[in-house]
Amino acid sequence: MPILDYITVSFLVIPLIILVLNNLFSKQFVERINFKLVGVVAILQMALAVAGFSLLSAAHWEDYRFSLLWDWTMEEAGYFAVNSLSLVFLFCIGFVLLVAVLVAKATVEQRKTAFVNLVLTLLLGMNGMVMVRDLFSLYVFLEIVGISSFVLVALFQLETGLEGAFKYLVMSSLATVFILTGLAFVFMQTGSLQYAQAWADWLSVQGTAQLYTYLAFILLISGFALKTGVVPFHSWLPDAHQSANTAVSILLSGIVIKVAGIYGFIVLTKLFPGFPPVALALRILGLLSIVVGALFALRQTHFKRLVAYSSVSQMGYILLGLSSGTTLGFLGAMVHIFNHATFKSTLFTNAAALSAQAGTLELGELGGLEKKMPVTGFSSITAFLSTAGIPPLAGFWSKLLIIMALWKSEAEGFAAVALLASILTAAYFLRLQKKVFFGQLPEKFGAVTEIGGSVKFAELMLSAVNIAVGVGFPLILLFFEGRGLL
Amino acid sequence: MNLLIALLSEGANLLWFMIVLPAVVGILVWIFREYHLPRLLLVVSSAMINLVCALSLDQAEGFARSFSFGPCGLELAFRIYEFSALFLTLTAAAFLLVSLYSVVFLQDQKSAGLFMFYMFISLAMINGALLSDNLGVMLFFWEGILCTLFGMLLINNLHQPKTAVRALVLSGTADLLLMLGIIITVVQAGTPKFSEIQRLPITGVSAVGFLCMLLGAVGKAGGMPFHSWIPSAAEDAPTPFMVAFPGALEKLLGIYLSVRIVTDLYDLQPGSGMSTAVMLLGTLTIIGGVAMALIQKDMKRLLSYHAISQVGYMVLGIGTALPVGILGGLFHMLNNAIYKSCLYMTAGSIEKQTGTTDLREFGGLAKRMPLTTACFTLCALAIAGVPPFNGFFSKELVFDAALESNTLFYLGALLGAFMTAVSFLKMGRVAFAGELKLPMGKKTIRETSFGLLLPMGVLAILCLVLGVVNTWPLDQLFGSALGITEVYSGWPHSTMLVVVSLAVLALALVDHIYGCKKTGSALQAADHIYYAAGLKRIYQAAEQGWFDPYRWLVSLAGVFSDFCVLIERQVSWFYDTAAVKVLLGTGDRLQQANDGSLSRYLGAALLGAAGVAVIFIVML
Q: CB pairs below 8 Å between A and B: how many?
């Protein structure tokens, strides 16, 4: 089907073309239109992902393979491929990118061209990551994602931004070392890094020299855990997410940690399913993240830092879902990835609004802004309720699926702790809401007004998505059922 | 009207009608609460219709019918058969007389409409409970009576609802026991239907179920240990309430269920341990109730203790599990309903005329209220067990059964009969014989009104009629309903029993004369028992409430609530202080450890990798 060829190729080609265009013309001209162009790219990506998804499911194809300029049918040739999983990721990437651009319109005032260049590189890296079909290419795109992220954090030359970026860089290098070594061990064992062959090869050598295989797993898990920001590999994440420009924080927290980290875990669990130590390691890391992340979040005094720790905690739920090894848990994790993208983007958008209007993000200084900034307050509350898993908002459903999956895979204890940790989630977000939106309005905020323009639009859009997914979730469940997934 | 008749000619609809009619009439009575005459007509006519319906069900062949409603397979299972139809009829007859008395008694009072409303709702509930074939459905109606009881006790005491609360606690506890018993029974039998439960053997868990159900049923009848609200109700509830509930309707219902438990649901063997336990409960109720009655100086309170004590005979009779005992218990239930409600009615009419029922304040009413005196005398003779009144015959049957089971219980019951006779001699002589004495401020009194005398007269004459013609109730009513073929009617079979009973009555007379001589007044004729060696202590303890189960429950509740407060404090300390401190403290510790130095970050990550390695090593 040639149309599917065009669609799939455009996920890689469009960012490249826009990247070229962004640097081809004069700065004055480019800076007038380039945000709009990125916005169009984001919307286009979402549309293409939806179109590709429908075409793929209409044709009942598992995988659709393609290449850019070479003939992938040749023996030993590498290729890209899309399946429903990667299309869902591509959609999420487009969605978060759209929000980031809407917020960037308000927060990014200098170095617009550089920002757009880096965002497009990041996009290219993430799109590539979810479409490659061998472990080494995965690593290459992962590095593209990583490097664009460091520079994005450091771009605006704030001192804290530089420090955060540096820590991110160092920790990511450690991850690179882990992942690359791990891949080397896998290659030593199997002789191939192709997804399709790695599993078969691994099966054939299983039982001989297992030490390297296990070392590979340990290193790969640690590497991807570093990229995801799972406790105890999380320490760089709050620094980087807090110090970056808010638009960058949205990208990092909303999608980058998921593509760079969680997607790695997905590949790992898909390629080597039914391996008990992997499941247990994911479970323990997940639970640790949930609880410790929430405890950290309870004590934070900075809006963005608190929300960043919340991301650490939420990644734990996704890992728990993946660790169950069942379709139900996998679906729960996927839905939670999307939901987390929604509500975490909302909260960072709120941060952008607050810092633009009130001028600070220190919780101790804020207060009583509920009346002054009703849209921000409302969207923040929907996001927090959704994160805490209050029905009927979106977050409730994904947590429910994850906890059900855990329960069914006989990890009742993990399920119970994950459920109880929702109380902690509610606790730190209630504290946040109370400090920012309720209580006494400090005198200096007497003249604060609601934010307008693209940020307000983003807030409204995200709240609508959050509520609509929650209320309409039975339809999504029906869709899953129709595809025989439940 | 034609439609109504057509509807009612179908027997199954009659079942509904028996429940819906009283409920509707109750609401109508409440609507017309301002007007006496329509209320009187409505009450009497509907009570009569109810009686007619009950009689026609009694005539019909037994049948069962289920009405399903709701989506969850809920159904109202009703069943009418000889035994329940009999009780339905007795209830309807008693209700006719009692409601007539109540509506006349309360005619000038504001609360009349509300009281009659509760009465009719109670009738609907009682009819429902008698008709139910499903234990759960029966429990629903049964609890409904608790609600109306509470409401009636609240009527004049909204601001000091002590008695109402007491009744609610005690009856509520009894009902809880019943509920527990029903749950156990249903689980053990595997079905909630009366008609499907085959007499369960009383062993293990079933014994608990039996005991709980029986205690609940006896508690409704007013037996120990759920009795102590009745005397306090005598003080502040309207007299018609005493006539209707502790007097007649609650006894009917409680004994109905007790008999069904013993004969239908469970297989109570004569001479078994459980049978002895029930008989012990009955004997204790007889003696405990009547011993307290002996020292009362207020008519209504005195009668209330007798209302408790009389239940003892029924429980004793039923507890023997012998046909003669069950028959005697049932007959005694009927007789007691007749003379006890009549006695309450005489107390009520005296109260209406003199304004009090305190025996210290009035006396010698015989000349002024001859008809009331006559009714009282007939009923007092009946309750004391003088031949040929009905009470004599039912007591002899119970004595017969008790003697056959265990001589000790027979002696206990005789002691009860002795004290009953003594206390009624005292009350009768003080209230009616001798010189006229009126409370302060009353110059003259006259006989009570016709509307009150009519039910009293009917009941008093019934006492004699049912005694003389005891073949009809014993053989036709209860005997055939229970399927007992032996004949126990007529003069008691054992001459020895009769002689002993008469001797006890003579002894009571002697004791009364001795008491009068000793103290010089009829009112204190029984006081020498109070002051007898050893008894005084017990009486004083009883007067201080040491034997009052309500007091036990309340102090138990106090201990329990103290315990709960303690637990609650710990729980809130855990939530409000400990958990918060631990969580925030941990957060602070983590925060301190996370000081931003890169080496620590790297160390943590390497430790994490080592941890993952440990997981692998442990798992493999």
A: 77
Q: Token pair of A222, please?
A: 């640690």
* Subunit contact B602:A174, Cβ cutoff 8 A: yes
| pLDDT in the model for residue B459 | 87
Give contacts of B590 with chain A, Cβ < 8 Å: 292, 295-296, 299
Q: Which pTM value belongs to this model?
A: 0.63
What dihedral angle (degrees, nearest 10) is formed by the CA atoms of B223, B228, B231, B232? -150
Q: Where are the beta strands (DSSP E) in B177-239?
A: 200-201
Longest dimension (CA), chain B: 112
Contacts of A424 in chain B (CB under 8 A): 583
Cβ of B602 within 8 Å of Cβ of A232? The answer is no
The span from the CA of A268 to the CA of A331, in Å, is: 16
ipTM for the assembly: 0.88
Mean pLDDT confidence for A341-369: 91
Report chain B residues whose CB lies below 8 A from the CB of A232: 604-605, 607-608, 611
Comparing alpha-carbon positions, the chain A residue that sits nearest to B611 is A281
Contact call for residues A376 and A463 (beta carbons, < 8 A): no
Per CB-CB distance under 8 Å, the chain B contacts of A214 are: 616, 620
> CB-based contact (8 Å) between B586 and chain A?
yes
H helices of A299-326, in order, are 303-323
H and E: helices and strands count for chain A: 20, 2
Domain boundaries, chain A: 279-486
Torsions phi, psi of B73, nearest 5?
A: 75, 20
**Token pair 């008999």: residue:** B259
State whether B601 and A167 contact (CB < 8 Å). Answer: yes
For A37-55, how does the pLDDT look when each residue is reduced to its tens digit (9 = 90+)?
A: 999 999 999 999 999 999 8
Taking the CA of residue A228 as centre, how many other CA atoms within 13 Å lie in the half-sphere pointing to its CB? Answer: 31
- What are the Cα distances from residue B254, in Å, to B233, B314, B376? 18, 10, 26
pLDDT averaged over consecutive 10-residue blocks of chain B (620 residues)? 62 78 88 82 87 82 71 71 85 88 83 87 90 86 89 82 84 89 88 82 86 89 82 83 84 88 85 86 88 84 88 88 85 88 88 83 83 89 86 86 85 88 86 80 79 87 84 78 77 82 87 83 76 78 78 85 92 88 90 84 91 87
Task: Provide the CA B171 distance to its chain's centre, in angstroms.
Answer: 8
